[in-house]
Write a structure and sequence with these properties.
mainly beta; five-stranded antiparallel sheet; two-stranded antiparallel ribbon; 0% helix; elongated
Length: 126
């Protein structure tokens, strides 16, 4: 499979890993902001295009190498926005192995009705 090396003028996102999928989309300036050209009727100029899987990363030179099936005419240019997504098989998280116990008590002498109990859980860091 052919590869493409993408060189960036700014530091790479620290979350980028080998195995992530790289994409690009055309951009335009609207009212002073750089935006994608996506609209309600997509064309070949404004759709998200998959470049391929990231095979190597060089943080020191801000370059990534990507396996691609794109032809030379469809490769990203410097005016296009390049981004990546994670492989959800390798980067998913769940509450495997966590346990919680709750004790609810009524401190009054009269009967009380419990309307709702909720719990919000999030992973703070790894």
């Amino acid at each position: 499979m052919p590869t493409i090396t993408l060189v960036f003028s700014n530091p790479l996102n620290v979350s980028l890993q080998v195995g992530d999928t790289a994409y690009y989309v055309a951009t335009s300036t609207q009212k002073g902001f750089l935006t994608s050209q996506n609209s309600s009727s997509p064309t070949t100029q404004n759709t998200v295009v998959e470049i391929g899987d990231v095979t190597s990363i060089a943080q020191s030179t801000n370059t990534i190498t990507v396996d691609t099936t794109l032809t030379n005419a469809n490769l990203p240019t410097t005016s296009q926005y390049i981004f990546f997504s994670k492989d959800n098989k390798a980067n998913s998280s769940s509450l495997l192995g966590y346990y919680a116990e709750v004790k609810i008590s009524n401190n009054s002498t009269s009967e009380a009705e419990l309307f709702s109990i909720a719990c919000g859980i999030f992973e703070s860091s790894k």
